[in-house]
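User: Thanks for the earlier help. One more: Mitochondria-eating protein. Can you show the sequence and predicted structure together?

Assistant: Of course, both are below.
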Amino acid sequence: MADTLRRLTHTSPFSVLQDKLESWHRDYHVISCDNNLNRCCELIELTAKVQGQLFTILNHTAAEGGHYAGMDTLKTRLLPWLGTCFSMARPVVSDDTSLQLIQDSVEKDRRIRELSASLDSDIQRKDTELCSTRLQLDSMRIGRYSAGTDVTKRESATTLLATEEEILELKADLRSAHEQVESYQRKMAAFIDYERQIRLLKDEVSYLSTDKTVLQERLVRSRSPSPLPRLSRSSSPMRSESPTRAQLTNSSRYARLISRFNDLYAVERLEAQVILRRHIDDVEMVQKIIFIAVVESFKTAKLAYRQFKLRVRKTLSLHFGLEYLEDAAVDYIVRNLDLYDIQASINDVINAMNVNPRISFPQRWTFSSSVP
């Protein structure tokens, strides 16, 4: 609409129409009748073009205003003008004609109101239908969503069950693997124990072989004390000359000590009980005396061994360096056990037991009288 109005303004058709009217007025009495008619028709055509453009602008303006905008203006201005222009010219308008026009106008107003009411009802009905359609769509969407949710829940439950089954299977596999590992560990521990026992047996056999050799040498030698061998610094190390030190392992010493203690407990202990029961009636005191005798014997033997070793080290220090002195001293003690003064150790044990306050025995009786 604005473009049409702008074009109409720029072309200035009314100025052109005014110029043509003035030119026709000047030449009206000069030109012929045909020319006057031609100019009149030209002006009518120009006026029709302007009216056509104005009606176009009117149509666009009414369309932009909506269905009911500008209705009063059209009724009061355009319709009467159209009725006046397009109706046949009559010299006189009667009262009946005016009444008829009023009735027609009222009828038109009534029809317009009815159309407006029907349009409003149609609009309300359409709005109601639209709301119901929206509600149906929402319900359908909710139904689809709930159905999809149920399917998802079922799938999730199925997946969860499958996952739990897999977890149970994995736990069972893990337990079986732990059991296998434990069985392998037990087998490995048993194998290690077997190897340790084999090593102990080998050490024991080696020690017994060495002990057998030593005993055979002692049987060959005389009862007199053997002098210390003359050894020089140029001799080879003691580890290579005498295998006795190497064969005396801790396991061998432990096994020999246990064996000797078992013999003491099974044989010598019973013999000592028989001898002591001849003089002491209290069985508990007899057992206490035997226990104290064993303890004092171990103490005395340990002290005697230490003193014997110190004397041997002092003697061998003139012939060996510090590197081989310990091995040489131990090897000499093992080879010359007959130099150990057993009677002196027995006397020390008896003296310690005679003064022990935890032992009670009859008067005019000593432990030395019971020693064979």
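User: Great, one quick takeaway?

Assistant: The chain is about 80% helix and 0% strand.
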